[in-house]
Amino acid sequence: MAPSAAAERRTAGRRRKLVIAMDGPAGVGKSTVGRVVAKALGYRFINTGEMYRALTWRALEEGVDLGDQRALARLARQVRWSFKTTADRVTVRTFVDGRNVAKQIQGERVGKNSSKVASAPGVRRHLRALQRRLGRDGGIVMEGRDITTNVFPDADFKIFLDASADERARRRTRQLRAQGKKADFRSIRDAIAARDRQDSQRKINPLRQAADAVVIDSSDMSLNEVAECILKRISQARQER
Ligand code: DC
């Protein structure tokens, strides 16, 4: 017997490659979780914070005044952006003028200055267009601050990943110490709280929970448990569609 139209639609819905959007505050583990989820689904993963950081790095190199939002937008348009999947076949990395800037963008100076760059409307418009192009064909997990609300408001699945500032600072402190680096819990927590304020009080595309996002508080969960939970929810949502 031929399958009914409804059954066919359900099967097509399950096969189609989805756009999975994820937002949340700094240091909550979005990249770790996003990569695990993408890998399990055979999708690609991109951390859009890298794009803002890459532009910040470039602006600092060129001596662009970070208070000049028009100059920052011009630089965003001038840069030749490219994106390449790394050897893990999951993670998509940002290249600036053909250069892999993964190392350069990890520095403290770039991190601190990136919120200025991310508050320039022309920069956000340009990067949003690039992000939409990357997700056009689906099969992607994209994380950032405004992916569920602004870049892909119609994403197939939306996640808001949260954890208390204390817990995020504890994780970061542990991580740095495990790498043999010095880490002071209080100053890390203060820096996280400051980033939260910058991200959520920004005039343009601030960090906020989309009404239809699945909110997961990971304070008492391991990141693997969070990824498991998301995969289960995605699979349930697909069955219901
Ligand atoms: O996630 P991150 O710390 O690497 O992000 C770097 C900066 O970019 C930070 O200031 C937040 C900002 N950002 C943003 O405004 N929108 C995004 N979609 C991703 C990051």
Strands, helices and their partners?
Blueprint: H1 5-15, E1 19-23, H2 30-41, E2 44-47, H3 49-62, H4 69-78, E3 81-85, E4 92-96, E5 99-100, H5 108-118, H6 121-135, E6 140-144, H7 147-151, E7 157-162, H8 165-178, H9 185-201, E8 214-217, H10 223-240
Parallel strand pairs: 1-6, 1-7, 2-6, 7-8
Antiparallel strand pairs: 3-4, 4-5
Helix pairs in contact: 2-10, 3-5, 4-6, 8-9
The structure holds 2'-deoxycytidine-5'-monophosphate.
Keywords summarizing the entry:
single chain; 241 residues; alpha/beta; Rossmann fold; 2 domains; three-stranded antiparallel sheet; 15% strand; globular; binds 2'-deoxycytidine-5'-monophosphate
The CATH homologous superfamily of the largest domain is termed P-loop containing nucleotide triphosphate hydrolases
**Radius of gyration from the alpha-carbon trace, in angstroms:** 19 Å
Using the coordinates above, name the CATH class of the largest domain.
Answer: Alpha Beta
Reported CATH architecture of the largest domain: 3-Layer(aba) Sandwich
How many domain regions? Answer: 2
Number of helices: 10
Bound ions, cofactors and other small molecules, one mention each: 2'-deoxycytidine-5'-monophosphate
Query: H/E series, N to C?
Result: HEHEHHEEEHHEHEHHEH
Tell me the β content: 5-15%
Overall geometric form = globular
Q: What would the CATH topology of the largest domain be?
A: Rossmann fold
